[in-house]
Amino acid sequence: MTLKGELAPLDHGGDLGAARKQFPGAPEPFLDLSTGINPFPYPLAPLPPEASTRLPDPASLAKLLAVAAEAYGAPSPSHVVAASGSQILVAQTAFLLARGRATILAPTYSEHARVAELAGHNVVEAADVTQLAESRIAIVVNPNNPDGRIVPKDALLALADRLRRRGGLLLVDEAFMEVGPYGVSIADQSARGNIVVLRSFGKFYGLPGVRLSFAIAPPEIAARLATAFGPWPVSGAALAIAATALADVAWREKTRGLLAEAAARLDTLIAKAGLELIGGTSLFRLVRTREAAQLFQRLGEAGILVRRFAEYPAWLRFGLPDRESAWQRLAAALPPKA
Fold first, then answer.
1. Cβ atoms of residues 74 and 191 within 8 Å
2. ω before 41 within 30° of 0 (cis)?
3. What is the secondary structure of 13-41 as a DSSP string?
4. Cα(265)–Cα(191) distance, rounded to whole angstroms?
5. Which of 18, 72, 109, 333 lies 20 to 30 Å from 85 when distance is taken between CA atoms?
6. Do 180 and 174 meet the contact criterion of CB atoms below 8 Å apart?
7. CA separation (Å) from 82 to 124, 186, 218, 288?
8. Domains and their CATH numbers in the chain
C-alpha cells in the first residue's frame, strides 16, 4: 500500500481535529477508537441549576469525598482529594517533594514523565518494578496503559517500604483499576505514609469531559494537596455527577461485565485480522504488527482512528466500538488474515 499524508503519531488519543487533517477524505463521522474511555457512559440525570449558577458548595465536596472514599476503599474521606484531572495531581504531588530522581515504570503515559520533569525532578525510566527503589518519587501505572501490565499488590507495598526508608514516595496511577483484577488496588494502604494513589473518574464512567480525578493519600499529604487546589477544586457539575455515579454499585458491576464481553468480541476481530494481541484491559487492546503504519493508514482512510506510539512503531491500541454499526464498520475495515 502507498502511504499518503503525514503519519507522525498523534500525541494523545481522541484528537479528532488532528485526525481530520491527517485523513481529509475519510468518511464522517469518525469512529474514535484511540482512547481507553468507556463507550457506554454512566447515564446522566438533569443537573440542578445551582450546579452551574453557584460556586461549588463545600458540603457537596465533602459528600463527594466520602462517597469516593467508600467507592475506592480509602481509609477515610480525610485521605481523599479531588482535582480536575490526574495530571495536575501528579504535578502537585511531585512539587511537594524535594527535587531528586523520579523513576517511572515504562512504557506508560508520557505525561507523567513530562510533569515530573516540570516539577524539577530528574526523570528516568525503568523496565522492572525492582529498579524503582532508589527514587525520590516512583511512579507506576497499574493496570498499565497501553499494555495492561499488572504489578502485584505485595510488590508495590514492598517497594513502598524500601522507598520509605530513604524518604521516597510511591505514586500509583490506578486510572483503569475499575476494570482490573479485584484485590490489586493499594488505595486501602494509603495510611502507610508514603503512598499516593490516583483514580480517574472519566475513563471507566465514560465521562472524560467532567474532568475529575482523585488522589488517595495520607491525611497530611491530602491536606497539603487540598490547600494547593483551593476551595473550589472541581466544578459543581462534577460534584453532582460523580457523587451519584460512584455510589451506584450495581451499575459499576454490570458495566464491568459489559466491557469484558465487548473486549472479547474485539479480540475475535483482532484474531481474524491476523494481528498479535500483546496486552490491554477490557477498555482497550494492544496489538503488534509489522504492518502497523499501513494498518493505521488503512483505518484512518476509512474514518477509524486508533492509537499509534512513536516509541513503538509496531504497536496499535484499539478502544471499544459503542454500537453495532461501529462494530460492523471496524470489521469491514480490518484486513483479512493473511
1. no
2. no
3. TT-HHHHHHHSTT--SS-EE-SS---SSP
4. 40
5. 18
6. yes
7. 28, 18, 14, 36
8. 16-40+251-333 (3.90.1150.10), 50-247 (3.40.640.10)
- Say if CB 197 and CB 90 are below 8 A apart: no
Per-residue pLDDT tens over the stretch 75-126: 999 999 999 999 999 999 999 999 999 999 999 998 999 999 999 999 999 9
Contacts (Cβ under 8 Å, ≥6 apart) of 41: 205, 206, 207
Rg (CA), the chain: 20
Cβ atoms of 257 and 81 within 8 Å: the answer is no
The structure's pTM equals: 0.94
Q: Which amino acid is at 78?
A: S
Burial class (CB in 10 A: 0-12, 13-18, 19+), 323: exposed
Q: Which three cell numbers stand for residue 191?
A: 495510611
Q: Which tens digits make up the pLDDT trace of 41-53?
A: 999 999 999 999 9
Provide the grid cell at 35: 482512547
Half-sphere exposure in the Cβ direction for 82 (13 Å, CA): 28
Beta bridge partners of 170: 138, 195
Residue 46: how many other CB atoms lie within 10 Å: 7
- Distance between CA atoms of residues 162 and 13, nearest Å: 35
